[in-house]
């Protein structure tokens, strides 16, 4: 395994697909026109953007005019939340979300709280799934927006967004879903889901970093987020990242074309991994629902050890993975998602997220299942927490 | 992010383990914050002759534990008490800013283990 | 000239330099790590971003910690204005700007007006330059921010930002400058200018589209614009556009290394162009100050004709240029900049902006000087406005 990296962090980002880069290249070289200009070079760039828009619309079952390009998932989330909040504040100032959203949703909402909005954070069940009934109960006079992610980035659980949207529609409440982790992993159909806004980000499905999209259902009241030029029908100003948008379009086309095959392959690997880890290592738990989860996500907590140490040791073995430990980020609290599903702080610290991608093979899983038990026991040998368990246990 | 030296002390930590009937033992930190350090000292005639540790924590926490145990060995109690977290971090060719707090743990662990030793001495003397 | 395009619209956007793309390529292929991750692949991406930050800081004479990456000039402007306004609204709600700012400044300010802020738009002199004294007079109790662009994107005039910053500092007012058109054309030194915030955009100096930066002087009170992950020291959330940022870093390094040589070359071409047009065509004026302007900018108004028609005819001849005509954008009012320097609507409609770049040659200017008079007279022959002049005149 010398030199080679086994990449198990596809939820963090994915490599850019060759076919995607190939489509981008003209727009990084000869086709450098500004899409807002009227001469041929500009019109070509404009056409390329419109083709990308068509592809995104098709992938989501949306209308072309409902797709807006952004600089990524974070901008899409910020725009959706702040844009809807400001545009609808005369109707009310109450927003509902869950405790396991990405920071790109939670932090804009915190900001809105500072500006006088009220936010209800609906807790999730121990399996990491929110109960639509609890969302319904949180609705009150003045609720203007519900934002629930389609799939969680840490524990991979898939949320009942369709049911929630149905409840919201009955009350005339706008619904946003952060589908950044879902697109390219599960089918995403905005009409079927019934949402008004949906965020996505290209680099999560083998597209380029720094480009995303926001689906805005026709008629949804929302302010622009970036003001300036007339790009994106006056709703998102700024010279377009043409190459990035072209890449997003190609990537989403590829991702949705091969979706079921891709998902089936990853799910098989994932199940092998989960079964292997649970059988080979003790004091371990799988985080998130066993079945209602993304095909490529496995998330474990190993008691008595700390996640950053685990990642570093895996890195030495050529394995790239992720953890919800606070030590990874140098902050004090471990992942809010792991805490929200009821893990103790010290258990949350010992978490490992493995997210698979098309480059992964059975051999990769075998290799992980070979080195992981060794690493876990080595770290446990060092751990003062394990010491007492061993003593107590034997 | 981490220096070569930090990674070396992380991958090959010196002095991991326990000392049976140690003269000074202390555990500092909080599992909630993701870091606990347990330090064992063997002390003869006011000199630290052996040190071992167990740590639950990040790469920096493990590496600073390892380095701290190396640094106290052979030192008098007074000298060991002078060891600061900065000194431990410097001995590792530095730590990332957001990991400096992990080295504080090492300093605290040394001090707490020595205190444990001193209080045991005291109770021995008073008995 | 068959097939070849003569590109005279470098203020709209520039082609990506080969050396810049070369530095970007690893981050579009093998080096796909997410900079927030702790394994080697992530650390490499992080390092690349930090090198780019160093290069931007060096180019601007700023400290490394004062540079924040964004998705372009528009985001930088939005962030600077909204971020400062919201963070300082307890001190006051009055903002000063000029009438010739880019829409990326004017439209966020309009939005802030809707939220209760007050904005004074200081008019410019007929040469397109603002008088610092008039900015000073606009200051009142509660003025928290002054935003004046360093160089104008249409008429190329260079503004006395340094003098304005000095006035502002005496009163403790925060100063922002939109340097999107200035960077890569004239020296830009944040310490010498004395500004607190400065916006720039890579695609204006042979870097990629969709990436920019905001300089924020240490200690400047500003809110984040995008909330979410901890990227950019918690001030600009979102997975970084790594390849784009790397490209920005390389592009600004190249642009500032060769600046005086580059500027001298373009200025010579520009002067040849201006002299040629003014001598060969009648009923024409140069917009913006003759001398205090960007080395690559020429902006003319041809009476009796309309800009879009002019651009289309130039396009047919293989020339890409720009106009401040409203017809270019399909809106009703021609460029607010041309109106602000006192042009009549009908004159503003007949404007042509030529902005030069490193790919332009003397022959390109010769060619333009050859075809432009023909096109102008052809359009004038069609114009009912010209008809009456001819009759009256002769
Ligand atoms: C669920 C979720 N939402 C939002 C984001 C933010 O997207 P981006 O990294 O493109 O800003 C991410 C990824 O980081 C994510 O996983
Ligand atoms: C002066 C000025 N400010 C801001 C912008 C916006 O920058 P961007 O196109 O990168 O969003 C531009 C260019 O369009 C500009 O010329
Ligand atoms: S032990 Fe948590 S950051 Fe070091
Ligand atoms: S004449 Fe048609 S848009 Fe102006």
UniProtKB/TrEMBL annotation, chains A, C:
Residues 6-368 form the Aminotransferase class V domain. Pathway: Cofactor biosynthesis; iron-sulfur cluster biosynthesis. Pfam families: Aminotran_5. It is found in: Cytoplasm. Its EC number is 2.8.1.7. Pyridoxal 5'-phosphate binds at residues 73-74, 153, 181, 201-203, 239. The keyword Metal-binding applies. Gene3D superfamilies: 1.10.260.50, Aspartate Aminotransferase, domain 1, Type I PLP-dependent aspartate aminotransferase-like (Major domain). Its cofactor is pyridoxal 5'-phosphate. PROSITE patterns: AA_TRANSFER_CLASS_5. One of its GO terms (cellular component) is L-cysteine desulfurase complex. Keywords: 2Fe-2S, Cytoplasm, Iron, Iron-sulfur, Metal-binding, Pyridoxal phosphate, Transferase. One of its GO terms (molecular function) is metal ion binding. Transmembrane segments: none annotated. [2Fe-2S] cluster binds at residue 327. Homodimer. Forms a heterotetramer with IscU, interacts with other sulfur acceptors. Belongs to the class-V pyridoxal-phosphate-dependent aminotransferase family. NifS/IscS subfamily. HAMAP family: Cys_desulf_IscS. Master enzyme that delivers sulfur to a number of partners involved in Fe-S cluster assembly, tRNA modification or cofactor biosynthesis. Catalyzes the removal of elemental sulfur atoms from cysteine to produce alanine. Functions as a sulfur delivery protein for Fe-S cluster synthesis onto IscU, an Fe-S scaffold assembly protein, as well as other S acceptor proteins. This is Cysteine desulfurase IscS. It comes from Caldicellulosiruptor bescii (strain ATCC BAA-1888 / DSM 6725 / KCTC 15123 / Z-1320).
From TrEMBL, chain B:
Residues 1-122 form the NIF system FeS cluster assembly NifU N-terminal domain. Signal peptide: none annotated. One of its GO terms (biological process) is iron-sulfur cluster assembly. One of its GO terms (molecular function) is iron ion binding. It comes from the Bacteria. This is FeS cluster assembly scaffold protein NifU.
């Amino acid at each position: 395994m010398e030199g080679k990296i086994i990449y198990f962090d596809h939820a963090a980002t994915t490599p850019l697909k060759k076919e995607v880069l190939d489509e981008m290249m003209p727009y990084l070289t000869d086709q450098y026109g500004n899409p807002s200009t009227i001469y041929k070079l500009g019109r070509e760039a404009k056409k390329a953007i419109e083709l990308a828009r068509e592809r995104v619309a098709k992938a989501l079952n949306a209308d072309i005019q409902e797709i807006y390009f952004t600089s990524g998932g974070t901008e899409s989330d910020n725009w959706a939340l702040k844009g809807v909040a400001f545009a609808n504040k005369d109707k009310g100032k109450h927003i509902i979300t869950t405790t396991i959203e990405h920071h790109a949703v939670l932090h804009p909402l915190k900001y809105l709280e500072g500006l006088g909005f009220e936010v209800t954070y609906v807790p999730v069940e121990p399996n990491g799934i929110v109960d639509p009934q609890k969302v319904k109960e949180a609705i009150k006079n003045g609720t203007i927006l519900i934002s629930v992610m389609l799939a969680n980035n840490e524990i991979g659980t898939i949320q009942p967004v369709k049911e929630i949207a149905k409840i919201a529609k009955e009350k005339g409440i706008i619904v946003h879903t952060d589908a950044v982790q879902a697109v390219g992993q599960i089918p995403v159909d905005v009409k079927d889901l019934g949402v008004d806004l949906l965020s996505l980000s290209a680099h999560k499905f083998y597209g380029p970093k720094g480009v995303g999209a926001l689906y805005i259902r026709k008629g949804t009241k929302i302010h622009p987020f970036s003001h300036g030029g007339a790009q994106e029908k006056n709703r998102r100003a700024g010279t377009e990242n043409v190459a990035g948008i072209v890449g997003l379009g190609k990537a989403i086309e590829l991702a949705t074309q091969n979706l079921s095959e891709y998902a089936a392959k990853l799910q098989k690997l994932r199940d092998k991994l989960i079964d292997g880890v649970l059988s080979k290592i003790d004091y371990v738990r799988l985080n998130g629902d066993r079945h209602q989860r993304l095909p490529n996500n496995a998330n474990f907590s190993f008691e008595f050890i700390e996640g950053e140490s685990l990642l570093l040791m895996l890195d030495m073995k050529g394995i790239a993975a992720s953890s919800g430990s606070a030590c990874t980020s140098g902050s004090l609290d471990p992942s809010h998602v792991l805490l929200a599903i009821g893990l103790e702080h010290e258990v949350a610290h010992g978490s490992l997220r493995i997210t698979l991608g098309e480059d992964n093979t059975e051999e990769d899983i075998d290799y992980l299942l070979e080195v992981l038990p060794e690493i876990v026991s080595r770290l446990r040998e060092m751990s003062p927490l394990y010491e007492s368990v061993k003593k107590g246990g034997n | 992010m981490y220096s070569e030296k930090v990674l070396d002390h992380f991958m090959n930590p010196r002095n991991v383990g326990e000392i049976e009937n140690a003269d000074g033992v202390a555990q500092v930190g909080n599992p909630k914050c993701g870091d606990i350090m347990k330090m064992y000292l063997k002390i003869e005639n006011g000199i630290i002759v052996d040190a071992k540790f167990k740590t639950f924590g990040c790469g920096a926490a493990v590496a600073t534990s390892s380095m701290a145990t190396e640094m106290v060995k052979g030192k008098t109690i007074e000298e060991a008490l002078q060891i600061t977290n900065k000194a431990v971090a410097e001995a590792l060719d530095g730590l990332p800013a957001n990991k400096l707090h992990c080295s504080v743990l090492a300093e605290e662990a040394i001090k707490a283990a020595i205190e444990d030793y001193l209080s045991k001495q005291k109770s021995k003397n008073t008995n």
